[in-house]
Amino acid sequence: MAEQPRALLAQLGGQPVLILPEGTIRTTGRDALRNNIAAAKALGETIKSTLGPKGMDKMLVDSLGDITITNDGVTILEEMEIEHPAAKMLVEVAKTLNQEVGDGTTSSVVFASELLRKAEELLDQDIHPTVIIRGYRIAQDIARKTLEKIAKKVTLKDREILKKIALTSMSGKSALAQNPETMEKIADLVVEAVLTVAREENGKIIIDREDIKREKKAGGSIEDTELIKGIVIDKEVVHPQMPKVVKDAKIALLDTALEVKETETDAEIRITKPEELKAFLAEEEKMLKEMVEKIAKVGANVVFCQKGIDDLAQHFLAKKGILAVRRVKRSDMEKLAKATGARIVTNLEDLTEKDLGYAEIVEEKRVGGENMVFVRGCKNPKSVTILARGGTEHVVEEIDRSIEDAIGAVTSALADGYFVAGGGAPEMEIAINVRKEAQKYSGREQLAILAFADAIEVIPKAIAENAGMDTIDIILKLRAEHEKGNITYGVDVDKGDVGDMLEKGVIEPLRVKTQMIASATEAAEMILRIDDIIAAGKSKKEESKKEEEEESVGED
Fold first, then answer.
1. Angle 202-206-210 (CA atoms, 0-180°, nearest 5)?
2. Which tens digits make up the pLDDT trace of 323-346?
């Protein structure tokens, strides 16, 4: 029950004792639980319509009037300014899943909200939350074992399988779905990028998603999206007299300013005569010239500097025919080092020929009305760039999100080395296996296990529903196929029927499914354990500030 603001009272000799501050709102027991479940259900319903290749888009308008059009689950949840604490917990689940796996965020939130919807039905039958949680845990374990049993192997050599995984991940994005040829091209770029940065250590494939830099520029068309075997820096060459193209580039990466250093302690130089000023300026010029001479001496013809480059130093560099870029981000410097094989030098005196990196060509190009520096043709790049293009800002943003999801999916598949069929096929197989295993348990626990099986069917249901299909008909057909042993059968949205997803090339990484189920179950458990919500009231400072604002508005 919801209590009055003067919450949590205790009785002491007939005298009430206030434990919590005034203004605190407290909700306890089933009311607290139902409140949280309602918030989770509302969130699940909001993004359910975006699931699957025929999912709808959401238009999100922020307080400044900026528009985002997407059907990417985690983007929608991040852009929505969610206030409810339980709904915020589900958003956290999606964010974590996005960081860990890069895909499956929509499914996890939809599944978690469905688990809570089923839990609410069990609560109505007076089943304790602890029993429901125990049943869900048993079912989760059965689901994990089922996925491991039906998974198939994938390696670095299976380029075609990896491409299908990338295509499945991108299939729901409306910006690409209309143009299958372009989608295939981008899937090829993603697979090529992942395979370029992948490395094997102790028999395990290691891929850092950060090694694939994503740049986006509006203008041109989606077809202009390209993979650069090197790095693109969103900066321009510092001096107009510098070369705009350097072939056989020998690249120096400097984490030091090409400027005259200031003294460590506060110092004052007193100049009283014009000759002294002239000597001082001549000495400054000499120091900067020496810096540039040092760079030229080791054979560098391209310089990327993390800090500033003095105007005079720019002039000397230009005279030597050296291309220079300043104030490059630290993350870009690290990527440049991985791509070109250069070492980042923090002291110019230590710069040697061995520290230089190599690229076939470094050039400044105008892209989407802005200058960018392209470092191409690196010998063995361990960092690459995908430059996303599109007609408008909104299209480019959605293309970039598609690429991010595809990179996450391909990386996850290679990290574990396994994949499963998509289109709701693994979920249906899990539901059937969980129902079979539930017969081994009795009583209320069994009801919770069966509720898990019903809940996981929400994924194929949502895929079918968003494609305008008859969900009851499709789910019954799908169950029948899986009962026959056709474990790769899922929802075929193109034919409006069920079909073999493996044959169709609709496949997903095993990790996306295992993480989705684990995250959703944990989130549902966390919410089911809460039986008391104590919300702090506004502080006196906030109240007085609000009153002052209201008064000032009234005066205006």
1. 155
2. 999 999 998 899 899 889 899 998
Cα angle 290, 293, 295 (rounded to 5 degrees) comes to: 115
- Among residues 106, 225, 385, 514, which one is catalytic? 106
Query: How many angstroms separate the CA atoms of 123 and 131, rounded?
Result: 10
Return the minimum-mean-pLDDT range out of 103-107, 211-215, 464-468, 522-526: 103-107
Comparing C-alpha atoms, which of 478, 365, 374, 499 is closest to residue 427? 478
Which residues make beta-bridge pairs with 511? Answer: none
Q: Which residues make up the CATH 1.10.560.10 domain(s) of the chain? A: 9-153+420-534
Burial of 386 (0-12, 13-18, 19+ CB in 10 A): buried
369 in Cβ contact with 255 (< 8 Å): no
Q: Is 274 strand, coil or helix?
A: helix
Residue 158 among the catalytic residues: no
Annotated catalytic residue 106: yes
Q: What are the angstrom distances between the C-alpha of 52 and each of 183, 295, 494?
A: 16, 55, 12
3-state secondary structure of 212: strand
Q: How far apart are the first and last CA of the chain?
A: 43
- The one catalytic residue in 405, 411, 488, 514 is 405
Contact 308, 238 (CB under 8 A): no
pTM, two decimals, is 0.78
In the set 72, 158, 332, 492, the catalytic residue is 72
Cα–Cα nearest to 162, from 203, 132, 196 = 196
One of 105, 146, 225, 340 is an active-site residue; which one?
105
What lies within 8 Å, CB to CB, of 367 at 6+ separation is 217, 219, 387
Residue 208 annotated to the active site: no
Asked if 162 contacts 194 with a C-beta cutoff of 8 angstroms, the reply is yes
Torsion of CA 264, 267, 273, 278, to 10 degrees: 10
Has 405 been annotated as catalytic?
yes
Above 50 in pLDDT, residue 7?
A: no
Task: Find out whether 378 and 249 touch, Cβ atoms under 8 Å.
Answer: no
What is the dotted CATH code of the domain comprising 231-380?
A: 3.50.7.10
How many residues are there in the chain? 556
Report in angstroms the alpha-carbon separations of 504 from 164, 220, 498: 9, 32, 11
Q: Give the Cα separation of 141 and 98 in Å (integer).
A: 22
Residues of the chain with CATH 3.50.7.10: 231-380
In 3D, which of 28, 134, 26, 189 has the Cα closest to residue 535? Answer: 26
Q: Which CATH class is domain 9-153+420-534?
A: mainly alpha
Helix H or strand E segment including 419: strand 418-421
Torsion of CA 490, 495, 500, 505, to 10 degrees: -100
